[in-house]
Design a protein that fits this description.
This protein is mostly helical. It has twelve helices and three strands, in the order βααβααααβαααααα. A three-stranded mixed β-sheet has the order 2-1-3. One of its GO terms (molecular function) is G protein-coupled receptor activity. It comes from Erinaceus europaeus.
Length: 313
């Protein structure tokens, strides 16, 4: 229901204004976004099936990889299909409840992914810095506790964000200048004061993602120091190759989010389409890269995939 200044009507649905003023963006993005989505879904599904069916991969590290893949799949399914439907069929409406459900999943699952990166960095730290104690520290029980911590910490702390937004009164404007139901894009349509909403999201985002990034950086600092001390031939190069690719991916995950935040803050100096584009890409590019960097480059995963392919053939 479009905005009418003469009426004060409760909004029952929103319209996602996803590059509708820039149809060229829709054409340009449609194909690569579709391919990235298929790559993300296919690679993560392959990784999950391989770990599930191959008993030799029923180990703590691979359980964490499974969690990462599940989070990526949910995030992709929450965001990308709706964006593609808007591109292809111009179906902009999204119901009130669906919008806030999408907001909850995005706000809780992204920090869950960041926290999973942290636990995986700790796993690598123990494996390289305390190899003799690894089997006694990184156990199935440790993974179970870590998963419970990841889910409860992030869901509990981020749940108030969509709840606060849903409690606001939307009395006319219903056009979201975004491809997704981002909290700030939605709450600014309200006719209430949204200062509390903005402050809470800012504090939670920096607390969760900021603390995770600092601890991940410390873990890889200790790992780097331990790796440089390795004297076995080729051991240091192999460890650096593995951990280096992991750290670069984590840095990419964090950097694209920070770039989005800063471009959103400086929206008067950049095109309004840039933060929207970054927000969409942040939900699909890491999801496409994670299973490749963490999974396919791992020898055990590659062997597991080949075993399944041979069985299937």
């Amino acid at each position: 229901m479009p905005y009418n200044s003469s009426l004060s009507v409760e909004v029952s649905e929103f319209l996602l204004n996803c590059f509708v003023r820039s149809p060229i963006w829709q054409c340009v993005l449609s194909l690569p976004l579709s391919l990235l989505f298929l790559l993300a879904m296919g690679a993560n599904a392959t990784l999950l099936i391989t770990i599930w069916l191959e008993t030799s991969l029923h180990q703590p590290m691979y359980y964490l990889l499974s969690l990462l893949s599940l989070l990526d799949i949910v995030l992709c399914l929450t965001v990308i299909p709706k964006v593609l439907v808007i591109f292809w069929f111009d179906l902009q409406p999204i119901s009130f409840s669906a919008c806030f459900l999408q907001m909850f999943i995005m706000n809780s699952f992204l920090p869950m992914e960041s926290c999973t990166f942290l636990v995986m960095a700790y796993d690598r730290y123990v494996a390289i810095c305390k190899p003799l104690r690894y089997p006694s520290i990184i156990t199935n029980q440790f993974v179970a506790k870590a998963v419970v911590f990841i889910l409860t910490r992030n869901a509990f702390l981020t749940a108030p964000i969509p709840i606060l937004s849903a409690q606001l009164q939307y009395c006319g404007k219903n056009i979201i200048e975004n491809c997704i139901c981002a909290n700030l894009s939605v709450s600014k349509l309200s006719c209430n004061n949204v200062v509390l909403n903005k402050i809470y999201q800012l504090i939670v985002a920096w607390t969760l993602l900021g603390s995770d990034l600092i601890l991940i950086f410390l873990s890889y600092t200790f790992i780097l120091r331990a790796v440089l001390r390795l004297k076995a031939k080729g051991a240091a190069a192999k460890a650096l190759s593995t951990c280096g690719s992991h750290f670069i991916l984590i840095l990419f995950f964090s950097t694209i989010l920070l770039v989005f935040i800063f471009t959103h803050m400086a929206k008067k100096k950049v095109s309004p389409d840039i933060p929207v584009l970054l927000n969409v890409l942040h939900h699909v590019i890491p999801a496409a890269l994670n299973p490749i960097v963490y999974g396919v480059r791992t020898q055990e995963i590659k062997q597991g995939i080949w075993k399944l392919l041979r069985k299937g053939g």
